[in-house]
Amino acid sequence: MPNLEHTLLDGLNDPEAGWNMGSFGAIAEFHHVAADPRPPVAQTLEQITDRGGLRIDTLDGVRPVAYETLSPKPHRWTQAIALCLPSDAAGMTRRDVLTELGPDNAALRPQDRDAVLFDMGLAQPQVDFCIRTDDADLLTVLRAHAGQSLFAPDNPAMGAILRAHPHRVALTRLGRVEVYQMIGGPDTGGASPEGPHTHVLPKLLRAERTHSANTPIPEGWVPCAGFHPNSPVLGRLGEDKDFDAQAFDRFQKLLAAWGPDDYVTQKSEVWDALDKGLPPESWSEPGTRLARTGLRNAIRQWRRQHGESDLIAAWARAFDKGEADAEPENPGH
What we know:
333 residues; alpha+beta; seven-stranded antiparallel β-sheet; six-stranded antiparallel β-sheet; 9 helices; 13 strands; elongated
């Protein structure tokens, strides 16, 4: 069985890996930028750059859930490990109005600990999504409208936040992600900056869900942080890359230990059938979404490992068609 802490520490020292904390609709992401200097080697579960940072304070009670999802593009898939807590241990404050919390004494960097933290009031189950600032003008606006919803049509606080670009801080029971870069919007050409960034998507927030329906989180558990190991098929910016067999094999070991049994079993059995040269007519499509995803990803992964053939093309025509059950690779980007 892999050691979770060692796995995460290795990930923090891999510039190709990514991280996030948040919910379905409010998320803070931490990634390295290829052109930036490589940060110092992490000795604990903390990594800080000039663009943002991450700290995992505890792994007590954590259940790692490794999973793969379908990409809308038939030659790709995504992979991740969700760090989950039982639902009764994962809950945060669920404040629904802008709330001043005082100086951020637990900030990753000493220079940020006198700046003032405000809960944005997004009322999310497993994350308190906050902003942090020492900007006097912004503080005046935020304090004047504390106790109100940021989404009220006559509240100028959200506009002031978008103009001032304060730090964003996502707090969960496991730790925090901090983002120092600008907020994606008019000042960034409408795109999120490369590297650490945040998304707050009101339409998704209204769903009041802890995670996407395509993420196989066990009943009674809530994802409180996400780890995205180096992908064998996707680059840091979501671009195609040559198949990385070592990255693929590393994640398959984690998937075997921490992945859903139905998914892992389906992939293994499909690969066995392909290895024997069995035609798709020999296979029955499984009845669950999770197993169907395993079937489709098994086909995609076999093709990337072994190349094109009449056999794999026939399996793809039979089972891997359309975008049903596919997950956007970069929701909100």
